[in-house]
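FAQ
Q: What does a multi-component entry look like?
A: The components come first, one per line:
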Amino acid sequence: MIEARGLSKRFQDKKRGEIRAVDNVSFTCQPGRIYGLLGANGAGKTTTLRMLATILEPTDGTAIVCGYDVVEQPEKVRANVGFLSTATALYRRLTAQEFVEYFGRLNGLDEATLKKRVDDIFSRLHMNEFRDRRCDKLSTGMMQKTSIARTLVHDPPVMIFDEPTNGLDIMTARTITAFIRECRNNGKTVIFSTHIMSEVEKLCDTIGIIQSGKLLVEGTLGQLREKYAEHELEEIFVKVVTPHYVAEEAH
Amino acid sequence: MSTRNIGIVYKKELTEALRDRRTVVSTILVPLLLFPVLSVGFGALAVALVGKARDEVPKVMLRGGEDSPAVVEGLRKLEKIEIVPETPGWKDQIINKEIRAAVEIPSDFQANVAKEKSDTVKIFKYEGEMKSEFATEKVEKYMKDYRDKVVKERLAAKNLTETVLKPFEVKQENVAPPEKVSGAAIGGLIGYTVILLCMTGAMYPAMDLTAGEKERGTMETILSSPISRMHLVLGKFFLVLTAALGTAALSVFSMGVSFSVLSHYTGQTAGGRSAAAGLLLKLGPKTVVSVFLMALPVAVLFSAVLMTIALFAKTYKEAQSYLTPMTFVVIIPALAGMLPGVELTPKLSLIPILNVSLLCKELVAGTYHWNFIAIIFSSTCVYAAAALFLAIKMFQRESVLFRS
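Then the predicted structure of the entire assembly, as C-alpha cells:
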C-alpha cells in the first residue's frame, strides 16, 4: 500500500527561482490495483515517483509505503519497493546474472535464497540463454527483462514504474505492460506514470491526472468518463489540464 | 555501519573496473611501463648519445698562432681533435655545427709569454651544445696545462717552490653513507612519482564510479536499492583507493626494477659507471614500508577529493575537464619537494602533498625525523578525513546527484 500525504518538492533554479515540481499531492494506492499517474512532460510525475522510491526527499509532506515513512525510514521503504524506469540502466560491464545478483545481495538476500530466486526469475522470464552475457551485449528486449529481474529479485510488495515503456519498440513495451499486469495479479501495489493514454486505459484501476505539480483529479476511468461527459481519456485529459495550461501561460 | 554492504559494492566495482580498459591501462599498465620506458629507455639512450658525442672527433678552427709554433704543434697533437685552418665565416660555421669551436691565439703569444707579458687566448663555442662543449673542454685543458707548465718553469727559474702559489689545499670530503647521497639525489623522485601515480591511478576510477555512473544512467538504479548512500560511497571510495595504492605500488616496484637494470647496463661501460653510481639506489623493506605508510593518507585524500569533484560532473568528459587541472595542483607541490635545498620545516610539514614529497626524500635517504613524520602523517590524515567526509556529504545532496 502507498499513501502519499501532501507530498511536495521544491527546487531552486538559478534562472527561474523556486520551482514547485510537486505541490501538496495526496493519494492512495491499494494492493492488487494499478494506480496510473497521467501527465504531460514536466508535470511532476517523475519527481513524485522518485519521492515514493526515496531517491528524492520531499520538501514537505511525506508518504507511507508498506507502513514505512519515506522520510524517516527510506532504506526500509526501498527494501519493499521495485523501481523501474527508462532511466534505470544496467551496469554494462556485468553479466545479466551478476547484475541481478548484485541487487539481490544489496537487498540482503543470503546466497542460497539468492540462487534459488535468480534461477526461478531467469527461467520464468526466459533469460537463461543470455544470463552469462554482458549487459552491453544485450538487445533492448533482453535489457528490459534484466531490469525487470532486478526489480523482482527481492520480491517487493510495491512496484513503481516511471514511464517504463518510453522509447521502447512495441514488442518490448508489451513485455513491460504484461509484467505490470502480472504484478497486479500477484497482489502487489502498483503505481505507474505515463503520458500514453492507451496504456492507462488498458492497465489502470485508478487514474490520477497531474499538471504543474498538482494532482488535479483522481478516479476510475468510469468515474472520469461520467464526470467529464467524455468517453476518450485523451478528451478528459485535455478538459482537465487546459485551464491550468492557460493559467501557467498567463503566469 | 554495514561492512557487508560496503563489501558488496566494493566487489562489484572491482569486477567492473577490471573489465574497463581505461582503468586497467591507467592503474596497471602505465605504472608498469612508464619507468622501464622512461628510465631504461631514455637513460640508455642518453648514455649512448653522450658516449657517441664523446667519441666524435670535433673540428676546431685555429685563428692566428703563426708566430707561436710550439703551442700550435701541441694543439695539433691533441688526441680526438682535428685542427682546421681558418676560413671566413667561422662564427656561422660554429652556429651551423660545421665546426665545433674555434681557438684564437693572439699575435706574438709565445714571445709575450716568454717576456712574462699577460695575454689572452680565446675559445669560441656554441654554449649548451654538447659536442661544442666537449671540444672547448679539450682545448681549454690543453691551454691550462700549458699555463701551469709555464708557471712551474718561472718558479723554478726563481728558485721558488709551488707552495708560493698554493700555501694550502682546500679539500671536500663526503661523510654521508652512499645510500644517503643517492637518496638525496633520487629520493625526491620517488616521492614525486608515488604521489603523482596515486593521483593518476585514482583519477579514472573516480570519474567512472561517479560521473560515469550518471552518464550511463545507473545512478538512479543503484539509488533505488536499499543500500544507504554512505555505504555506497564508501564501497566506491575503497575501490578508488585500491586503484590509487595499486598504481603507486606497481610504480615503485617497476621503478626499482628499472633502476637496477639501468645501473647494470651503465655499469658495463667505463663512462656509464660514474653516472650509475649517482642513480644507484638500494630500497630496503623498511624504506618501502615507510614510503607506503606515508602514501596511504595521501591516497585517501586524492581518492576522496577526486570522487567529490567528479561527482559534480554529469558526464565522463565533463569530469575529465574538471580533473585535468587538478593534476597541476598536485604536480606543483610534488615537484617543489624535488627541488634541491627545499627542506622540511614545521610550516612546510603542514602543506599537503609538498610535505609528503619532502618526507619521502628523507625516508629514502634513511633519515627518520619522527616529529615531522608524526606531524605529516596526522595532518594528512586530517585532510583525508575531511575530504572523505565531504565526499559522503556530496553523495547525499540531490542537487549534486541529479544536477541537470
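Q: Is there any commentary attached?
A: Sometimes. For this entry: The radius of gyration of chain A is 19 Å.
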